[in-house]
């Protein structure tokens, strides 16, 4: 299984790095945040900064036009970064970890599911969603806003402004109080031309990405979070166009991000890395390595994150991996059949969930596009001889567990499935939504279902807006997910 990385001697190549020194509080630091610190390089066993980032004007800069922030604030693009990482993942071979789990000559035991072990939605009966879920709260946000809700306390909201700079602000929505708090009005690098492009939060901290698209550079920041106030803001990583803008995640007291070399850049043959630290720390650990790209974005799940490194084998394999947030150890693994590339990941009561957006002429029960997860409890590392469920719609969102329901995004509506009773529901979508309908923004395992729609109003005097809706369980019980 993947092991944590051993000591690595710094090289002289340009790659993501920390800066030296400390910045005092500046005029663009929001009033409810502290000034950030440009941390000094330190010697650690597992991943340290050692080289300054390069920009277009530097000797090792990548050509113009390669920079492509993973978060593009368009009306229809809520598939944050999936195409970017998925496209890169198709290039080259990688190892599954800092210490390779398999050599190129070792046979790989991958997931094998017979066709008759897979149940599909056509085998289920529909029930009214109102029997089991009710609308608890709704919140209007600026049109084009994005939301990530992967814990039971607070959701991160990336909200466009009415100006070109700053492009976005960060708000937090607290489920218990239905309070929406704006915690960052400007990026930390505002005066240097940076804008906020991505954000995730847990109950204890925040991680976000800032990009300068004119200089082809990106930065990763973290901060501790308490009572809707940020403190100890740190610049923990940065890079140029030779590195794809990282995908990020937050879980409990930890922040994670995937650093991937651009396949057309100076360092295309460098390893991709999953990096992590605890909020308030200034140095990260390299938890996993890949010789090239991970299969898809990292996702926050209960007690950790899941990612999809590719294994160091002559044939391409992706190894779904859960990493604990507490100590960054590997908690579970599942190897997909050869050349099958996941586009979305999840983890919950049934262990791993994964989505495929391609159709394969091999793989038996998991050869078709859709979202898959076991229909029974699992023991980590053991996924054979289990019944499986396939939601046979083109995947567009991260699957989630909400109570005893496995929840996915259908063509336009949010759909919940209950395995023991073989029932499902579809939540009615709001009026005047965009073509994709209501997007599922819940992830991991949550008590609530959170959906997001972009509403184009047809009423004179009203404004287009994003609508976030929060659903909570009714008093009616559907029973255990697996009929235990």
Give an account of the 3D structure.
The chain is an all-beta fold. It has one domain (36-473): Methylamine Dehydrogenase, Chain H. It is 2% helix and 38% strand. The protein has one helix at residues 82-89, and strands spanning 36-38, 118-120, 125-126, 133-142, 146-148, 154-160, 168-174, 179-184, 195-201, 205-212, 217-226, 229-239, 243-251, 254-261, 272-278, 285-290, 299-301, 304-307, 319-324, 330-335, 342-348, 351-356, 370-374, 388-391, 400-402, 405-409, 414-418, 423-426, 439-440, 444-446, 449-455, 465-473. The strands form seven sheets. It has a six-stranded mixed sheet with strand order 3-28-27-26-25-30, with no helix packed on it. Strands 1-12-11-10-9 form a five-stranded mixed sheet, with no helix packed on it. A five-stranded mixed sheet has the order 2-24-23-22-21. It is globular, with a radius of gyration of 22 Å. Residues 1-14, 17-45 and 47-105 have low confidence and may be disordered.
